[in-house]
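Question (not urgent): is this output format expected?
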Amino acid sequence: MVSTVAFFLLGLVLICVGGDRLVDAAVAIARKFNIPQIVVGATIVSLGTTLPEILVSTTAAFNGSAAIAAGNAIGSVICNTALIAGLSQAIRPVQKVSTASLAWRSAFFFFIIGLMEIYGCIRGVYDRLPGVLLLTAFVVYACLNVKFSSGEEEESGGAENVSVLKQFLILAACAALLYAGANLLVDNGILIAQALGVPERVIAVTFIALGTSLPELVTSLASLIKGYGNVGLGNVIGANILNLLLVIGIPAAVEGIPLERKTVMVDIPLATAVMAVLLLPILFRKKSSRVQGVVLLGIYVVYCIASFR
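Got this back:
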């Protein structure tokens, strides 16, 4: 058990180091090409920080742990929004948000998760058809990011004299650190949870979801500390979209994912609700508030307590 805890802590350190440097490299690239912070957060940063969820869910599906594949993705959306975004907004609310960047991504998220809820209620499984459709939606999402990025205005700080190749290499190295750290943390976290007799679904929506969301947590906190709040917000939104499209889409297209009733009746509706709490006030007011952060944190605490009952 001592070695398990040691590897767990090592994974945490790797995630912290990778997340911190990931922010610096991403912001440097954004400034070099005059890209809005929220855009780079919702694309480059979110893809890097979502890699642990993608790999964990795909591996879990091949190993027959379908509850982990579905629970990890939806649990990560809840964790990203209620815990990570909630904590970030409670500490330092975002005061200037590009509604053009936020509006279409919000609509895209709610459209996709709404269809997933309807299909899950009717079929009780994400088989190959919705898996392929989710992967197709990812291609559409990527194209929309390219199409709308030029019209999403936000003060990015001006161009910097940096080596783009070097920054992309740093991004790749940081993504590798995040992956290695998340693997160590998740694998050993599961062992600890199993030793305590925790059920698989609860492990998925709490321990694994929190573990694989730590890159987003560290990245968001690092963004706040460095004064790049929109990078953290964009990271959370982009990561949530990728959780739906890739973390569920890939294993569903390969193996199919049977759904537990609580995933459809509790987890997906809650994921939709916390995203509404985060996004709707920002869309109307063009800024967030500490009240949102506190409410989201409260929801996450209640959710975790209820999951263990």
